[in-house]
Specification:
- It is a single chain.
- The protein is mainly beta.
- A 5-stranded mixed sheet has the order 59-65-64-61-62, with no helix packed on it. Strands 67-68-66-71-72 form a 5-stranded mixed sheet, sandwiched between helices.
């Protein structure tokens, strides 16, 4: 999953990136045709031909190459100004000490000589820069007595000290015992081709990339092997090669990245995929670079991005969910972990599939599962591993574990499954049970009618064998022996308890607790106390959850609780109940997990279905270590002076006229740089730490006190709470502020001692009072913020609900319609506008109480007539709206409308009155993502008008096309 740092106009000076390197202090440098830029994780510092405060001037704009030698010294290869070295102490660019022809050469490539020095390839040939004194000498390349090679474009030193040099199609080799280079012929390489890169693999064999002919390999026997590549029947131009770790080599090209596995000599391509946002930003690459943390940086014509080639803890799965090249990857709505390690998943518009893990020498593959054609919402597997079950809108299916056969057990829609021994519990409209030894249609349970709502959203057992059912309107505890149902509804206030009606996920952990996740109300943990269950703790956004809408709760093998939400994934410590959010730097690519899919694989890995792909977490893998990344000053300014070369633990003298200090800093952990938090203080003046985020990482002080003080800076965990959780070593800067004349010992000896003590005491009292008032204000703001968040949560519930019917109101309808319109191309839908015929006459003749009761009954019948995944809203008066998800053809809409009218075939009994509710329906189909909400609504409204004009009590489909 590539993460883009800069693209197009965000690249400094709109330059064309050419090369990237990391110096000894940890900064990443980017060479462009418009100057040089230094990246610190959140911002660029640019260097051009114009000197600016804190940035020295370059002799020319065109920087071809940047390279850091073994000592961490940064070298610049220029287009016409030869070789420059970056002096960290002065932040200037200097030439090697003696004048040579390299001073005005066109540098093409640079490489380490293996002993701390530097090898430079340019249009004048090969040059060597000696370690220490940086003296430059020319290195003749070519056989004895033959012509010398110029335009050296590729250099590589192997593990045994063999030096390889390439010029055009010519390859030269010099062993440690040789006095001159030997010309090595490459069979089959055209004379008009160019060798662009050389790299020795982990086996000691040499790989060669070319401009027109793909790859060549020289094995241990000296034999050359040609490995052609092609994209659209054309061979792309290859660029540089790098060691990507785990024995792999990566090569840049004008057609993406080529990954070489030397063990098998297989080559595969990584390319930009417009259907996957986290793919390579572009195919036209100029360079690759691997930094010290293992991240690989890709430099394109108009982008700079990085990727972790071997994530250990979190793996995002996207491209494996596509059935063919160029096709949109499936959006997994539901997932199940099969006993054989395969991942089963269902989508909204296609049949279910199973993803079979890769075997040695093969890739993962997809197999379509038989049974339901679409909308598979849950999977369950028998404990003995003999069969599987899939619940969908088309019914319940029994599927062989091999995925070769299926049998339909029930045509009734089901949405949730729970396997308990030999019994399968199916949830949908109520709960049914099936004996998996002789699977048949689920038998409805007698106690389902006593649930808080018939729409079952989650099920779980706790260790005391209590059966828990979460519905759209509350939580239920069922005694299976007696059929007794205990209803649990939301509680108001700050006390622990259920905070929302919609119970989306349930988990009974091995400690006997029940975890209830809700939509908008976070998690409530229940424990059994003697004979009674009580809420133990509520966890929400204020306690550290990424979002209050909880989609899935799972328990790992170690007892840790894993939670997916609409705002990300978190891990909860089962004992302390502390929450750790998994961030993008941990490898999490998908934030929204509203589909609610998740399971635990047989090997203990945690699986979640997110909006965009699958997230696979290995709890046993080590967490990403960001401690080793250095904490550095990026800029230090005192007065009009910009100071360079401050790496930390330095001393800074400040003159009597310069009493101000501005220090910017950054932890050079590029994978988490934008998530990093910091704290700083000036001791002994300050005892409290000032916290800042990654985009405000600057400490500013004016009127510094005379004498010695220390600026302390620490990188801290973003969710540190009230206590600091430092990451890595601190960064310090000793300040020595020079005394002014009236601050000298002579003046103090002649001044009135008492007045001095008063002033001194008032100064410190004022500072303490200021800090105390600031602390009181912060506490007050925190208290009021907590109360406002609670009030806001209650107001949001009222703002989106129609108080009469309990349906969503017009505001919620508008937001839901916006989401459906934005996703119309991948998830078509239908909009139904419904109006009650002659409702005004009912109000006028029978009274508003009868009219209100009729509206409530209409809402209930509409709810029973549509699927659970469809949405119903009351827009006002007698006007209703329905959004049918996944239905976009006329036949399916006709079936849905027929179900609506069938539900109103009988009269409504209200007191002593028998009232008949007739509907007029206008329908618009949403298949085009470019259409606006207003257009969709207008089309449905016009169709509603046509229905009423046709005599009422009927429906009409809009004859216009959206857009």
């Amino acid at each position: 999953m590539f993460k883009t740092v800069a693209r197009d106009d965000t690249i400094p000076n709109a330059g064309l990136p050419r090369s990237v390197a990391q110096d000894g202090t940890g900064f990443v440098w980017i060479a462009t045709d418009a100057g040089l830029s230094r990246w610190d994780g959140t911002g660029f510092k640019t260097y051009t031909t114009q000197a600016r405060p804190g940035a020295a001037a370059l002799p020319e704009l065109m920087v071809n190459q940047v390279f850091a030698d073994q000592g961490g010294v940064l070298w610049l290869g220029m287009s016409s100004e030869g070789l420059l070295r970056h002096d960290v102490e002065t932040d200037r660019f200097v030439r090697p000490p003696k004048r040579t022809a390299l001073d005005h050469a066109h540098v093409l490539t640079m490489s380490s000589d293996g002993s701390g020095g530097l090898l430079v390839g340019s249009d004048i040939g090969l040059s060597h820069v000696r370690r220490g004194d940086h003296v430059v000498t020319a290195v003749p390349v070519g056989p004895v007595g033959g012509p010398l090679a110029r335009d050296v474009q590729a250099i590589h030193i192997g593990r045994k000290g063999v030096l390889w040099v390439a010029r055009g199609p010519n390859l030269f080799r010099r062993r440690p015992a040789d006095r001159a280079f030997q010309h090595i012929k490459i069979p089959g390489l055209p004379t008009d081709d160019v060798i662009s890169a050389l790299h020795e693999d982990i086996k000691g064999e040499l790989w060669i990339s070319t401009g027109k002919s793909g790859f060549y390999l020289f094995d241990h026997e000296g034999a050359a092997h040609h490995h052609p590549i092609a994209v659209d029947e054309r061979t792309p131009k290859l660029g540089m090669m790098i060691d990507a770790g785990e024995g792999k080599l990566w090569s840049s090209s004008r057609a993406g990245i080529w990954v070489i596995d030397p063990a098998t000599r297989r080559i595969r391509r990584l390319a930009h995929d417009p259907l996957i946002p986290a793919s390579l930003p572009e195919d036209g690459l100029n360079a690759l670079f691997r930094d010290r943390s293992g991240l690989i940086w890709a430099v394109g014509d108009s982008s700079l991005a990085y990727v972790d080639p071997s994530p250990l803890r979190v793996l995002s799965i996207v491209s494996a969910l596509r059935t063919g090249p160029g096709l949109q990857p499936h959006a997994a709505w539901s997932v199940g972990a099969a006993p054989d390690g395969a991942i089963w998943y269902g989508t909204a518009d296609t049949p279910a599939f199973r993803l079979i893990p890769p075997q040695p020498g093969s890739a993962a593959r997809l197999e379509q599962l038989p049974g339901a054609r679409r909308d598979v919402q849950a999977f369950a597997f028998s404990e003995r591993g003999g069969s599987a079950f899939a619940a969908s809108d088309e019914g319940l299916f029994s599927i062989s574990l091999s995925g070769t056969s299926a049998r339909k057990l029930s045509a009734k829609p089901w949405s949730r499954l729970l396997m308990d021994g030999q019994t399968l519990y199916s949830g949908g409209k109520g709960v049914g049970t099936t004996d998996v030894r002789n699977p048949r249609a689920p038998i409805p349970t007698r106690w389902s009618a006593s649930l808080t709502d018939q729409r079952v959203r989650s099920m779980a057992f706790t260790t005391d064998r209590a059966f828990w059912v979460g519905t759209a309107h509350g939580l239920n505890r069922v005694d299976l022996a007696t059929g007794t149902v205990t209803q649990i509804r939301p509680s108001a206030g700050l006390a622990p308890g259920l905070k929302a009606n919609y119970v989306s996920t349930l988990l009974g952990d091995r400690k006997g607790r029940l975890w209830a996740g809700t939509a908008g109300g976070g998690i409530t943990i229940y424990v059994r106390n003697a004979r009674h269950w009580r809420p133990l703790r509520h966890l929400g956004r204020l306690e550290g959850l990424p979002h209050d809408t909880v989609d899935k709760i799972l328990e790992g093998r170690d007892g840790a609780i894993w939670v997916s939400t609409d705002g990300g994934i978190a891990r909860i410590d089962p004992l302390r109940l502390t929450i750790t959010t998994l961030r993008p730097s941990d490898g999490v690519a998908f934030i929204a997990n509203w589909t609610g899919g998740g399971d635990v694989l047989p090997d203990g890995r945690i699986l979640f279905a997110g909006f965009g792909g699958l997230t696979l977490i290995d709890p046993s893998a080590p967490e990403r270590n960001s401690v080793a990344a250095p904490l550095r000053f990026t800029s230090v300014i005192s007065g009009a002076q910009s100071l360079a070369g401050l790496a930390g633990n330095d001393s800074l003298p400040i003159g009597r006229a310069q009493r101000d200090l501005t220090a910017e800093f950054a932890k050079l952990d590029y994978a988490s740089s934008r998530e990093q938090a910091y704290a700083y203080r000036l001791s002994p003046l300050e005892t409290e730490w000032t916290r800042v985020d990654a985009f405000h990482r600057v400490a500013r002080y004016t009127n510094l006190p005379a004498g010695q003080s220390t600026l302390e800076i620490r990188a801290i965990a973003p969710t540190s709470g009230s206590r600091l959780r430092p990451i890595g070593a601190p960064l310090t800067l000793e300040l020595n502020v020079e005394h002014r004349w009236y601050e000298t010992l002579l003046f103090r000896a002649t001044a009135i001692l008492g007045l001095f003590l008063v002033i001194y005491s008032l100064y410190h009292l004022r500072m303490r009072a200021t800090l105390r008032r600031q602390k009181l204000l912060e506490d007050l703001v925190k208290d009021r913020t907590t109360k406002l968040l609670v009030s806001q949560s209650e107001l949001e519930k009222l703002a989106y609900t129609d108080t009469l019917t309990g349906l969503g109101n017009r505001r919620l309808f508008g937001e839901a319609l916006t989401r459906h319109v934005n996703n119309a191309e991948s998830q078509p839908f239908s909009l139904l506008l419904i109006d009650l015929d002659r409702f005004k006459r009912i109000n006028d003749e029978l009274g508003h109480d009868v009219g209100d009761a009729l509206l409530v009954e209409v809402a209930d019948r509409l709810t029973d007539a549509v699927r659970q995944r469809d949405s119903i809203f009351r827009l006002g008066g007698d006007e209703f709206a329905i959004l049918l998800t996944g239905i976009s053809d006329e036949r399916a809409v006709t079936d849905a409308c027929q179900r609506l009218y069938n539900s109103f075939s009988t009269t409504v009994s209200i007191g002593q009155h028998e009232v008949r509710a007739d509907l007029s329906v206008g329908i618009a189909l949403g298949t085009d993502g470019s259409v606006s909400n207003e257009t969709m609504y207008k089309l449905a409204d016009v169709a509603l008008y046509d229905a009423k004009r046709a005599g009422r009590g009927t429906w009409r489909l809009s004859q216009s096309t959206p857009g």
